[in-house]
Design brief:
single chain, alpha/beta, Metallo-beta-lactamase, Chain A, 7-stranded mixed sheet, 21% helix, 27% strand, globular, binds zinc ion
Length: 256
């Protein structure tokens, strides 16, 4: 398949980095690499852009990215730090003149109908974002005409979906993945995986667990995302990662 580009819109955990009101050294860092908006990426190839997640920073992220169109959205799961910015898709929907396709699992769709009840009201209020809810299931899902391999994992009690397109795999907010699902990552040039902090967490891989999954994945390079301020600043954390591992940062772009 053609070369795939992954643009990183955000690489931070649910509160972002810095955290409001925190004076830890990571939050006080003046290094731009320590400014992390909520986790989100865009896969691009063959002239199509597919946005993964619509977190609360979406407006700022899209303005910064200079992306002028999104062909479809896919949601990993229904937590606020991945869905709270859905309404900010409106300018792109108005511009294209068609509803935005939103791929998500059925329980995520149910949450959207509750969280965004005004979008689904009848009669329709003018100006609401028109969306088409579409499935996200099975091993391969066609999204905006592109065949994504879906990587199914667990995030505490919730199912969470990751994506592989070409040689780039992306999985965030996971704390458990079966060997069979991890097999789908094998041979990736880049595997983006969540690593929250050093201490174990009930629904996220901590660093040691993420290193273990990364080593078993068979990817050439593993890059961590959904990073919290509990880690030391970016420059120091990068230094202590083993060979073959690195960090995402906001604005980073990968091609494979
Ligand atoms: Zn999250
Ligand atoms: Zn802090
Ligand atoms: Zn989550």
């Amino acid at each position: 398949m053609s070369e795939v580009q992954l643009q990183v819109l955000g690489s931070g955990t649910s509160q972002g980095v810095p955290v409001i009101g925190c004076d830890c050294r990571t939050c006080r860092s003046s290094d731009p690499f320590d400014q992390r908006l909520r986790s989100s990426v865009v896969f691009s190839t063959e002239g199509k852009n597919v946005l993964i997640d619509t977190g609360p920073d979406l407006r700022q992220q899209l303005l910064r990215s200079e992306l002028s169109s999104i062909d479809a959205v896919a949601l990993t799961h229904a937590h606020q730090d991945h869905t709270a910015g859905l309404d900010d898709l409106r300018p792109l929907i108005f511009k294209s003149g068609r509803p935005m396709p939103i791929h998500c699992r059925s329980e995520v769709a149910k949450r959207l109908r509750e969280q965004y009840a005004y979008i689904f009201e009848n009669p329709e209020y003018p100006g609401v974002p028109k969306i088409d809810i579409l499935p996200l299931q099975g091993g391969i899902q066609c999204i905006a005409g592109l065949d994504f391999t879906l990587i199914h994992a667990r995030h505490g009690d919730l199912p969470v979906v990751g994506f592989r397109l070409g040689a780039i795999s992306y999985l965030t907010d996971a704390n458990h993945i079966t060997d069979a699902e991890l097999e789908k990552v094998k041979g990736s040039r880049y595997f983006i995986l969540n690593a929250l902090r050093d201490e174990p967490h009930y629904s996220h891989f901590h660093l040691e667990a993420a290193l273990d999954v990364g080593r078993r994945s068979g990817a050439e390079e593993v890059l961590f995302t959904h990073i919290s301020h509990h880690f030391e600043p970016h420059a120091l954390l990068s230094e202590r990662l083993p060979k073959g591992f690195g960090l995402l940062w906001d604005g980073r772009s990968l091609n494979a």
